[in-house]
From TrEMBL, chains A, B:
Pfam families: LacI, Peripla_BP_3. This is LacI family transcriptional regulator. Residues 5-59 form the HTH lacI-type domain. The keyword DNA-binding applies. InterPro entries: HTH_LacI (IPR000843), LacI/GalR-like_sensor (IPR046335), Lambda_DNA-bd_dom_sf (IPR010982), Peripla_BP_I (IPR028082). GO terms for molecular function: DNA-binding transcription factor activity; transcription cis-regulatory region binding. The keyword DNA-binding applies. Keywords: DNA-binding, Transcription, Transcription regulation.
Amino acid sequence: MEKDVTIYDIARLLQLSPATVSRALNDHPAINSNTKHMIASKAKEMGYRSNMFASNLRRQRTSTIGVIVPRLDSYFMSTVLAGMEKVANDANYNLIISQSLESVKKEVANAKTMFDSRVDGLLVSLAADTENLDHFNTFFQKGIPMILFDRIMPQKNCTNIVIDNVKAGYDATSHLIEQGCRRIMHMTGNIKRNVYEDRLKGYKLALMDHGLTVDDALVQLTNLTRQDGLQMADHIKHMASPPDGLFVANDFCAVSCMGALKANGFSIPGDIAVVGFNNDPVSQVIEPNLTTVHYPGQEMGEIAAQSLINHLNGLLRINTTNTILLNYELVVRASSLRTPPAESR
Amino acid sequence: MEKDVTIYDIARLLQLSPATVSRALNDHPAINSNTKHMIASKAKEMGYRSNMFASNLRRQRTSTIGVIVPRLDSYFMSTVLAGMEKVANDANYNLIISQSLESVKKEVANAKTMFDSRVDGLLVSLAADTENLDHFNTFFQKGIPMILFDRIMPQKNCTNIVIDNVKAGYDATSHLIEQGCRRIMHMTGNIKRNVYEDRLKGYKLALMDHGLTVDDALVQLTNLTRQDGLQMADHIKHMASPPDGLFVANDFCAVSCMGALKANGFSIPGDIAVVGFNNDPVSQVIEPNLTTVHYPGQEMGEIAAQSLINHLNGLLRINTTNTILLNYELVVRASSLRTPPAESR
DNA sequence: TTGTAAGCGTTATCAG
DNA sequence: CTGATAACGCTTACAA
């Protein structure tokens, strides 16, 4: 439990001033490279570590980025965070991560914590029931930059990072139509959230473009839980004319619904072709494997973090690029393929 | 982008000394409760927020706890973290969370980051290939407390929080035996990790206690990935005498294996009864629903965080309680029930 | 019950 | 290229 080494200790031993040591350690250009080396090696030898608190106090910044996400327990989010961590580490930023558990109340509390922690910037994906961004006003007022990703909401001077959910919904639906589906059901989440609203839009557009009518009875808004998937299967079972295609805005729910449909004697994709969303690993657990939309999680995390850091370092004015669209990919698997696939039975 | 309010500002307006303001804000007993109220309301009115960096610098502590986990993308881990966040927030501690992605190399890097961030304490669940705790020596030397949870390793002066994995493995296996299984296969992970080693021990003990012999060919060490589950199904398919019971140390892998077994014509639980581990939501997606061992994630997170915080606050000497065992529960579902269940078909 | 003043470890400014 | 010095905002002996 020895005392921490400070730049004063190094300075004393090297007969230099603390200022010089500080500059050397920060690779200041005005320092002789010999002294730099000498200081660096002495610092390592003594086990010196910079005191972030003194440094933060002095510089009035924290080198910390706050991250607020709805939940941590999805494969997608885990890859997003891995991407953010990678970029943040490389740029010597720390991450403070918290989950809102889909509740705006907790999101408000998280925002307050982040504010009190004086994060330099914020990366946020909104909770299901968030209706406005008022709880981030303190950040906006102080000019602390914030980037929204995936679950976004239009906001002046705030970059958004998403995939084109309308187009993805369109592609998913069009794929089902191409496979011969004519009565396609769409099961989605709270359409307050852009991701669900947009996928629904894409679904409707695809139907219209292919000369099919939009039947509101075939659009189901739920919370996309396992339970919702089961109930939907039950609902379909009791429909006078059940759908021949099903587009679910979330793999997990799609998978639970598929299971129940199969148990009720529906054949997939024969009776009902199914497409999910996210390319979660469960999509490859279910039989038949689930067709889905691949979401570039790692990339989304990296780009969000990098954009924020660039902005903080003055390398990129964040409000010039207001929305960044990432590429997605429709991954076709057996659950929607009516033309016999060449892969595993 | 106004200037931050400090205790000096409050002091000036209230004709008090900064010291009094500081004490009042920290609820120091020696301050008149009237002045306390007056200061508190003024502080709120002015939008004062404490500067953690100045405070940390002065107090030589950070009120920050570091968390290192193998991955964030499991339901289990998400609930653990929710529990930790809850406790930490209530006690005014911050959490810095990072994932090792099951790699000891990244775990080492994470530990270094945590050390440089001067966390007051550490909550760790080890990566798959971690062989020793040398990378935490800096913490031990400085007397920074560390608690291991779930993926643990014996270490002096370091509390461990786990369930009794031996007993849980024993119960899972015994349950299969009670359902009439006589050739029970066990599929588990890297037995460097206590959780897998112990579940294997429990499996062997249960067999022996019930007069069954342990057949090494029925013990399969893998990485418990989806792929491993599929391969295991293939392996079973080609066995001269396939098992009639299967105990997998992880729900996700169990589920992938079950899917492939079904596709290969095995009936579950008829031909092979299956038990998983963790009570992951996927266990209720697969048909038949998977029997599994419920893991108390939220509780584990809460207890880990609370124990660490108690130690930091001097309320509990951490080395007196060296291992905390939490209760688990065998959740019996259709995948292992040969006596017809009363629930959904 | 309140005030005074020193100091936590850095970094920025100004001077040399 | 290097040094002296003054902050940054807070806490805590010690005094009153």
